[in-house]
C-alpha cells in the first residue's frame, strides 16, 4: 500500500520531497513571525489603552468634583471602554498578573502630568482569562468631598489574532506558489538529462550509427553525455571492425573459389565434377550473402520519405517477373499510398527478404499494409504465405545468423540463413521490429512494425 502511494518516477519523488521541505520551512518561519506579531499587537493594545485611559482621567480630573459624575455620563467613551466614579477601587478578587498591566503602568508614568493632575493611586487588575482589564485611578483628594473618588475603567482586551491578517495568508499562498513553481522547474531540469540518456541508449541499441548526444548543459550533464558518446564510438568501432573483418574474409574467399571452379572444369569424372561445382555454388552464395550482410551493417544511406504501398507492389511485381507461375498467388492488400521516413534501399532489402522467404517456403506471398491506428502508433506490414509454416517453438532462433530450418537444408531452396538476420537488423535500425508466427489457418506470417 505504502509502496503504491510512493510514486516511482524520480522527478515526482524529488518534487514531493523538495516541496514538502519548503512548505515545512515556510510554515515554521511564518509561525515564528506570528508569535512576534502577537507580542507587537499586545504592546500596541497596551499603549493605545493607556493613552485613552489617561485622556479620560485628565478630562474627569479637570472637572470640578461635584460635576464629575454628570460629565462622565455625557462623555462618549471609545469602544471597549466603560467607566464610572466610585468611592473604592475595583474589587481585588480578580487579580491576575498581566504583562499588559506593566505596560499600562509604564505608559502612565511616562505621560508627563503636573502634580495636581497626577492620580493619587493606581490599581490595575486583569480578569483571569485576560479578556478584560480593570483600572482604578484615585483622583486627588478634594476638600469638597467627604470620601475618596475613584475613576474605575473597564477595558476589553481582545486576544491578538495575528494569523487572521489577510496579508499573512496571501504571503503564505504566494510563497507556496513560488516554491511549487521553482521546485517543478528544478526537477524538470534535473530529470530531463536522465530521459535523454535513456532515449539515446535505446536508439543506440537499435542502430549503432545513431546520432551522438548533444554535449550541452551543466558540467555533469555534459560529462555524462561525453562519456556516453565515447562509449557509442567504441561500440561503433567494435562493430565496424568485426563487419569489415567478415567482409574481408568474404572478399578474399572469392578468388580461391573462382580458381577452384576453373580447376574443377578439368576433373574428368562427370559426376564428381558436377558435385564439386554444386558445392562451389553453395560456397559462392554464402560469400555473396556474407558480403551483403557486411554492407547493410556499414551502410550510411540517408532516411527519406518512402511510399510503402509502392514498395510492396514493386516487390511483388519483381517476384512475379522471376516466377511467373506464382503471379496469381502474389497479392497486395492495403492502401494506395502510405508514406514513412526510411532508408529505401535497406527497407526494400528487409521486406524483400521476408517476401522471398514466403515465396521460397510457402509458395505464395500476401503483403498486407495496415496504416497506424492512432497518432504515434506504428505502421504494420504483414507478409503471409500458405506454406507448411515454421518449425514450432523455433521462431526466434530463425533470426540468428546462418540459422536455417531443417527442411531448408536441401539445396533447392539454396539460402544461407542470413535473410531474417538482415531483415531484423535493418528494421531495428529504423526503430521497428519483425516477428514470425504461424497462422491459425496454416502458413507463416511475418509481422513488421515501423514507426510512422
Ligand atoms: N515463410 C516461411 N515459411 C517457412 N519457413 C520459413 C519461412 N521463413 C523463414 N523460414 C525458415 O527460417 C529459416 C531462416 O530464414 P532466413 O531467411 O534467415 O534464411 P534462408 O531463407 O534460409 O537463407 P537466405 O539467407 O537466403 O534468406 C529458413 O531456412 C526457413 O527454414
Ligand atoms: Mg530467406
What this model shows, in words?
This protein is of the alpha+beta class and 452 residues long. It folds into three domains: 10-164, no CATH class; 207-300, Helix Hairpins (Orthogonal Bundle), CATH 1.10.287; 301-450, Heat Shock Protein 90, CATH 3.30.565. It is built from ten helices and eleven strands. It has helices at 2-5, 10-62, 68-74, 99-110, 166-206, 219-264, 270-298, 308-322, 344-362, 419-429; strands at residues 81-86, 121-126, 132-138, 150-156, 304-307, 330-333, 339-342, 365-370, 379-384, 433-438, 444-450. Strands 6-8-9-11-10 form a five-stranded mixed β-sheet. The chain has a four-stranded antiparallel β-sheet with strand order 1-4-3-2. Strands 5-7 form a two-stranded antiparallel ribbon. Helix 5 runs parallel beside helix 6 and helix 9 (344-362) runs antiparallel to helix 10. The longest helix is centred in the first third of the chain and has 53 residues, at 10-62. The two termini are 40 Å apart. The model has no long low-confidence stretch (mean pLDDT 85).
Main traits of this protein?
single chain, binds adenosine-5'-triphosphate, binds magnesium ion, alpha+beta, Heat Shock Protein 90, five-stranded mixed β-sheet, rod-shaped, Helix Hairpins, 3 domains, 452 residues
